[in-house]
Specification:
By secondary structure, this protein is mainly alpha-helical. It has a single domain, classed as Up-down Bundle (Growth Hormone, Chain: A), CATH 1.20.1250.20. It is about 75% helix and about 0% strand. The protein is built from 15 helices and no strands. This is MFS transporter.
Length: about 400
């Protein structure tokens, strides 16, 4: 286990009472950001038929619109560490939330170009939040509670994602602007988050009181660390699994004889199981810094779920296994990005690396699986491959789940 980094040592010098006083406020700020990381994205899929009909967008361009955020996540993530080194975590988070609000508005302007430009802008802002949150958790939450707070904010992300999917069509039917107005609803979450972070920036609450003018030493992403690659591989494979399920599960279930309506409810059930899993994880792992077996087990659940999909009439069992496994894997993948770093600056660097790899894999996975299905005319090969990748995820999770820290020298 490595020695604490300079940034962690400085944070440790803060009086315990000061840390306790700021922890609740920090968690509230973290959860407000988490609410904004999926709200503007998950409603696009259900609104896509209306968008295509109104704008004349082809199915190919509609698919590009839904894949664009993942591509932007992968493109933006490597630069977040550099921006954080220059601006500081809090200031950069404020900028990201302001840009998210701007992108949300631009996307709803009556123009096809604005639809894509706004999506690019808001996706880049969300990528910044994705990378910074593990760093903020690492900085302001006691090490023994990092996995708990990570699980909570992942749960909040999932809940808001489900709400966004559910209310987007009713909002489009009720609001004067139709689907454009429905796409903008997430701004009601962005503005409060921006206000809270502006207030925290003004009070300088996110800088160690011992030296409020001090800037942490710049760090780089730990490309030469084996543990960092294990964390990144786990992040990448769980992202591939999740986004592939979101993209193709209804089609797979329809192929087994379900109706489109039934497959939609099964996707909802899958997401509900994921929320249950991420909520249960802190209870299962309470007091344990070593999470090897939990990370491996939830991955095996996913592998089993893909195989069960091959059995006719077992859709509910398959979705239960997939939801429990992928929900737990996501919560662990995010907590590893905080836990395996020596300090909060290093956590941002590790998160930048893990999410760069993760979203590159996630963006290509559903596309490649669709090509495989087209080539074979069936889902059997695709499901076997997904199951094998899930076993690989179990191996990566077992390694990443060890109670170890990446040496500070790996970030130089």
């Amino acid at each position: 286990m490595s020695t604490p980094s300079p940034t962690e040592s400085e944070h440790a010098s803060v009086a315990p009472s000061s840390i306790r006083a700021g922890t609740i406020g920090a968690i509230i700020a973290i959860l407000l950001v988490a609410m904004n990381l999926r709200a503007t994205l998950t409603g696009v899929g259900v609104l896509l038929p209306a968008i295509e009909q109104d704008t004349g967008l082809t199915s190919a361009w509609g698919g590009a619109l839904t894949t664009l955020p993942l591509v932007m996540f992968a493109v933006t993530s490597p630069f977040v560490v550099r921006m954080s080194n220059r601006l500081g975590t809090t200031r950069l988070m404020v900028v990201a939330l302001a840009v998210l609000a701007l992108g949300t508005v631009v996307r709803s302007v009556p123009s096809l170009a604005s639809l894509f430009i706004g999506t690019i802008i808001l996706s880049a802002a969300i990528a910044v939040g994705n990378v910074l949150l593990p760093s903020v958790v690492r900085q302001h939450v006691p090490a023994s509670h990092v996995h708990i707070v990570s699980s909570i904010y992942v749960t909040v992300m999932a809940l808001i994602a489900g709400v966004s999917s559910g209310i987007s069509v009713p909002l489009a039917n009720a609001l004067p602007g139709g689907w454009r107005a429905a796409l903008a609803w997430g701004i009601v979450l962005t503005i409060p988050a921006l206000v809270v972070w502006l207030l925290r920036l003004r009070r300088d609450s996110f800088v160690a009181p011992a030296r409020s003018d001090a800037k942490p030493s710049p760090v780089r992403m730990p490309w030469k660390s084996a543990l960092a690659w294990q964390v990144s591989l786990y992040m990448g494979l769980q992202s591939l699994v999740f986004y592939t399920i979101i993209a193709w599960l209804p089609s797979i279930l329809i192929g087994t004889g379900m109706t489109a309506s039934q497959s939609g409810w099964m996707l909802f059930f899958f997401q509900g199981m994921g929320i249950l899993s991420s909520l249960s994880l802190p209870i299962i792992t309470r007091g344990r810094q070593d999470q090897r077996y939990v990370a491996a087990i939830v991955s095996v659940f996913v592998a089993a779920g893909f195989l069960v999909l091959l059995i006719p009439g077992q859709g509910i069992l398959a979705c239960m296994l997939l939801g429990l496994g992928s929900g737990g894997a996501l919560a662990l993948a995010m907590s590893f990005q905080s836990q395996r770093a020596g300090g909060y600056v290093e956590a941002a660097a590790l998160a930048g690396m893990a999410q760069t790899i993760g979203y590159l894999v996630a963006a290509t996975g559903p596309l490649l699986l669709g090509v495989l299905h087209t080539a074979t005319g069936a889902w059997t090969s695709a499901l076997f491959i997904l199951s094998a990748l899930s076993i690989l995820m179990a191996v990566a999770g077992y390694q990443a789940g060890r109670d170890r820290r990446i040496p500070h020298s790996a970030f130089d």
